[in-house]
Amino acid sequence: MGIRFVLLVNKQGQTRLAQYYEYLTLDERRALEGEIVRKCLARTEHQCSFVEHRNYKVVYRRYASLFFLVGVDNDENELAILEFIHLLVETMDRHFGNVCELDIMFHLEKAHFMLEEMVMNGCIVETNKQNILTPIQLMDKTS
Amino acid sequence: MAALVDTLLQRSLDDLIKSLRSQPTLESSIISRSISEIRREIRSTNPLTKSTALQKLSYLSSLHFLDISWSSFHSLELLPSPSFTFKRLAYLSASLSFHPSSDLLLLATNQLRKDLSPSSPSPVISLALDFLSLTASPDLARDLTPEIHSLLSSPNPSIRTKATATALRIFTRYPDSVRVAFKRLVDNIDSSAAIGVFCELSASDPKPYLPLAPDFYRLLVGSKNNWILIKVLKIFARLAPLEPRLARRIVDPVCEHLRRSNAKSLVLECARTVALSLADYDEAVRLVVEKVGEFLASEDDANLRYLGLHVLSMLGPRHSWAVEMNKELVIKSLCDPDANIRREALLLIMEMLFESNVVDISILLVSFASKSMPNPEFCNDILEAVLSACGRNVYELVMDFDWYVGLLGQMSRNPHCAKGDEIERQLVDIGLRVKDVRPELVCIARDLLIDPTLLGNSSIHRILSAAAWVSGEYAEFSRNPLELLEALLQPRTNLLPTSVSAVYIQAVFKVLTFCFCSYFERLESGHMLSSLGNPIAGTGCQEESDASTVVFGKGDNAAVGNLNNTGAIGCKPDSLSGSVNLDEQFTHASVLRMLNLIETAMVPLSNWGVVEIQDRALSVLCLIHMLQRFQVWNRDEEGLRKDGRVSEFANLMAGVFNQELGPVSANSQKRVSVPDGLILKENLADLTAVIGEEVNVSVSASTSFFHRKHHNGETGEETKILTESTSLLSEHRKRHELYYLPAGKDEAQSNDYPPANDPQLPVSQCGASEDLVELDDQPLLSRHRKPTKPRPVVVKLDDVDVRENSAPESTVDLKDDLLSGAVCDVLLGNEDNKPTKTQKKSAKSQRRKKDRPTYVEPASASQLRESGNLVHVELGSSSSKISRHGHSKEKQSSSQGIEDNEDGSQKNLTNSQHHYRKHKHRQDRDALPNLLPQTPVIQDFLL
């Protein structure tokens, strides 16, 4: 299904956002996040951004204190996923203005909403920043 | 009033987050406190209170792994809220809390249908679509297919996009929906969402999507969107192998993208497409190799280096020149700071292993592993890779086994080596299978055994066990058996675990037997005189034999006091190991000395606490004592030779181990024919009743197990129990004669069983000879260097060994099958100009279905009646489910029940339709095989 999950994790390994596109039980989630966060956080800047884990790949990228981890199928294009992560960060940046960990914590719903505009059922559906943000801006105006 | 207080006093999500952040140590208590608050708040009738509670719950579940499945019903309650904010919260928490197989999901059907109707505001529709794309169950997918179908042609592009993505979920959960909605999906093919959906759909079975190739091609050439291009390339990589003409057609545009594009992601995807499906087109491959070279050379980007290696290994075996060209960079990657890149490089190198380069590469890797290895993990990865590559298919790559055995020895000496198990297995396995390598194998084993430092490394004890076994089993190839014995008996062997010690003792036993027998052979053939030529050796020999007589004289007393002597053994035998010539070794004196040495070492072991060791040590001692009984030992060699008993004994001993061991085929048990009269499948249940009473007795008898140390005092008792149990057994036998095999026949039959590894067996023989023939016939390819010496015969028993790593047959699961069948029907059925009878019918019915989705053909009235009954049954069960879940909210559940009845009548229609379609579908699929070859839909496009 292309993208299997999107995780945002801080430097301490605490989850800041988790969106799964296949159902996992709570225990599976906990185990998975524990394992891959440990694997990815242990890596240095000079190492590549791809980690193989079980039967899929994790593509990750660090922005300031936040790690963006995306779990994808093995035949997915890693560089495209990196671009997707960058797009996600840029979109959040544009909305929150220099996005940081706290913005996502206090606006978890909105972050989910943004992600929903970009990815559905594991497929990237929208890559235009303006298109992604229009519904959210609309929502902000009405409420 | 209480509700109002709740609302006023309720803590917001921000409050919760702030308190969690301000007191990180009290996290768990804060969470549990707020959960109890939430449980109260969530029941509130005030939507604001409820939504805030759900909001907090979603936060806690997302970030603190809290189980919120209990809250699903409350999210459902909030779903119909007219406020968009509440609705959004409800959908979000529902998507987080719902299990896809939850029954509660069905309760959401009506609300979803309402929200998905084209008259709803578009943000609401997209919320519902998001929810559906994550959670749709087969039932939900079936019920909401018409809604998705109409939304696929919505005027709002964002809704269309979302409906497209949701369609994927609907299709996979309910394949029959393809017949309704697929056409509209094809209409949207230009959007990135639709291409994503096609990419996912084609992953499991690409064949049905071949007719869409012209559309994909148009995108490949025309689209400016890299996301779309990447997905289109993925689809083509799957389609091209099915249709060679398609590959020819797409080579040029792919090369064009490779040359032109600045986006690395697109270049990477083009390179992968070429490696996967266009590897026949040299120009494309050359272009890819060029790009990969750039990737590999990018010093500052580990990602590109990694991906470069990845693409190279995809090109790998077919285009070895590509790897050859980048050889230096690949080897350099073995030292990359990134473990993933190192591993990828290793994988790539291992894939490039051929008979011609296996020696060079393995030597390179093994020495690399032992030299500059900061981390043991990767060092073991290397060893494992070499071991598995060389051991693959019964060592098919290995031409020179002497070299390979030496390599195994070198690996064992690697200080980080943790692959003892595999090396052990291969050492023994090679010994069994390859006759010609045994002398070298014994030599390597000796080097390992003799090194006292290796005994300290627990990770290679298994290897030492193999070495001991090899040198015992093939003692005849040992250049110096006495030295070997000393190695096997050296004091540091007490560091070995029990299982390995047991192997050591058994090896001592075999070597001893061998030495003894060859000594006698030499005596008999009259070569003994050669030792007389050396007077100094002669006198030495005399002295030593005197010394040994004394020890022998002590006999059993030695057994008590010799514990301390073990330490001395290591120092003493230096004089023995000097001789190299086999003939000169077995002098009277040296054999005596050997016996002495072994006895000294074995005596303490015969009192060891572990039976495995005790048992073997005792049998060695027993042999020595038997030899001792020949008084002629004390005289000279001449007397020994004349004594008939001694030579008879020697022959007997020689016979003990002369049966050669061989590899055992996995099939060998199947070859044993069942003797006449033995019924294996008979039900033996009644046997338990018969033996029930005796079981207890016999168990207690068989488990009475005595330690050797206490043995002396209790012998009488033990034998008593033994005789008791045997008498019980014979009594039982007498009573239930018919359940036993006939006693007399037993032995005769056992001869019928072919030995598992009998080289005379027709199967194994022809297998081996076939292998040889294969080897001879194979013209060595240009890259295969001619081996300097002929490859020795490797015994293969049958094709089991070889078939081990052949891929299992791919099985398409039923759902995919249904899905692709439906897609085939939609795509091919409509475009077919001259359909056969059944096809015409199916096409017609499809068209009709599409025009009037709720119309049921009168022809299927009888089916409808049948399925109507079915529906009633289903309805009953579903309403009972609802009442079960709705017990807390009675009012709600009753209204739901009514709604459900309305829904039911509708369902009646859809369901019967569904039934009918399914039936049709089966027919269509039957017709499919004829249909496919007849409809070359993409021919025009290709030519």
Automatic annotation (TrEMBL), chain A:
Residues 3-142 form the AP complex mu/sigma subunit domain. GO terms for cellular component: cytoplasm; endomembrane system. It comes from the Eukaryota. It is found in: Endomembrane system. SUPFAM superfamilies: SNARE-like. GO terms for biological process: intracellular protein transport. The keyword Membrane applies. Keywords: Membrane, Protein transport, Transport. Gene3D superfamilies: 3.30.450.60. Belongs to the adaptor complexes small subunit family. This is AP complex subunit sigma. It comes from Dioscorea cayennensis subsp. rotundata (White Guinea yam). The gene is LOC120251199.
UniProtKB/TrEMBL annotation, chain B:
This is AP-3 complex subunit delta-1 protein. It comes from Dioscorea alata.
